[in-house]
Amino acid sequence: MKNTVLVIPSRFSSTRLPGKPLRLIAGKPMIQHVYERAKQSNFESIIIATEDERIKSCCEGFGATVCMTSKEHETGSDRLAEVVQIYDWSDDTIVVNLQGDEPLTPIENLYQVANNLVNTPDAAIATLATPLLNVKEYDDLNVVKVVMDKKGMALYFSRASIPFQRDASTQDCTNFALRHIGIYAYRASYLKDFSAMDVCPLEDLEKLEQLRAMWYGSRIHVDIAKEVPGHGVDTEEDLIAVEKIMLDQK
Length: 250
Hints:
By secondary structure, this protein is an alpha/beta fold.
């Protein structure tokens, strides 16, 4: 895709699964699976951004381009902002963020989020979501919900059950909220500004970095993912589940 790059942030530290990027899945480090999935796309450039020499060495071993970044970054967006500065990309470059623990992400979703940003000039960021399946998901604090306006722009992201239904009725609130999935496309101009933005109070409360963008007035476009997102890896159980999926697909 013209003037569009893909960056894979990969951090060694993980509270629930230490050394996660280098954990083996079906005989390969997880980060290699993510990279090989990304290579199936036609983005101009694919870069792995990390703070860890072990990840750098591993990735260079299978031929990836690696950008070393600071150990101090709190969010993936902070890490991407440094990559933008290092490579000095033009303001209109589209930067797609593929998480380093998402080895089953559909390529179509990466194209979708990039194209949505290109086609929405007043948005600084584009992201994707999926319908909530049931009330249990709606009430689950581990499921990030997003509500948007009629033009597909995010109104708010929250771990809480939003919108709240004040009056008792049979209205199903899951029709108004979506389950947010952590895939983003950014304008490089926004990421250049992001690194200078202080963490905002709402971001600090919810632990959701996208609220920082909204706090400072940037708009986020939301669309329903064209393909069902693949299983991500946060725990040992996830690792086993993803490996089974991969082996079954062979």
